[in-house]
């Protein structure tokens, strides 16, 4: 689908980075709300949200924690709220869905396949941890499969999509995930426009090479024609180069401390808003306009913020 404006998504905290990696990673409901609102004010039309235990920053699926920041975000901004169904390591599918089922958001993320998800190389760079769970969390990823079977995906599509009108950010970490998405479209479980997030640079998924991004887009064009829009997530230091390439190719962009802790080489981002402001500057320097939340809703055919349960 041709777009006149670029949607900026911001993934505020995620479940990948641990508290010891950056003092600026938002952990408590107050920090998540504050940084999400600031990101929206800086130009993010979509806020991709996870929750963490306030005491130690460990990823949690508890809807009660989500409800400590979701109403505040909605009250302060008109940004689209996108709740993760990825959850965190070793959560069951039912646990991963709890917050989205309770709140019926406009959007939810959905990983399109089971995969190895290796975070353990971070142990080569980080050795001192504030909380006991952090080291084990990273090390255990060496023997962890992020489970998203066809049955799991169909369940999520029916539970959130069919029952609640939630639309999805389809996270595709490799070319095979695009074919899985086509399978569900052919089954009639999803309808266009499809919002496809190309995810590059996670160990276990497709690598962060510019050629891979071009290949992902080429295959998505073949499979979905003009019925989809794409966005790009570049992990770690690949964030800004890959999202810039995405914009040049006519796509949308995702930034945020879930995807990268840095603003530039060796420079920690002090907030999500800093990354949003940086990518907005890049877009505007390319003579591209940034989409407002309502423009994003129109492009993606979302149900509207007045239909959610928070």
Structure description:
The chain has 310 residues and is of the alpha/beta class. It has one domain: TIM Barrel (Alpha-Beta Barrel). It has eleven helices and 16 strands. The strands form five sheets. The chain has an eight-stranded parallel beta barrel with strand order 2-3-6-7-10-11-12-13, surrounded by seven helices. A two-stranded parallel sheet has the order 1-16. The protein has a two-stranded antiparallel sheet with strand order 4-5. Helix 1 runs parallel beside helix 3 and helix 1 runs parallel beside helix 10. It is globular, with a radius of gyration of 18 Å. It starts with a strand and ends in a 10-residue tail after the last helix. Its cofactor is Zn(2+). Pfam families: BKACE (PF05853). One of its GO terms (molecular function) is metal ion binding.
Number of helices: 11
Q: What CATH first level would be assigned? A: Alpha Beta
- Please estimate the helix content: 25-40%
Shape: globular
* Quaternary class: single chain
Write down how many β-strands occur, each being a DSSP E stretch of 2 or more residues: 16
The portion of residues forming beta strands comes to: 15-25%
Determine Rg (CA atoms, Å).
Answer: 18 Å
Pfam families: BKACE (PF05853)
GO molecular function: 3-keto-5-aminohexanoate cleavage activity; metal ion binding
InterPro entries: Aldolase_TIM (IPR013785), BKACE (IPR008567)
Keywords: Metal-binding, Transferase, Zinc
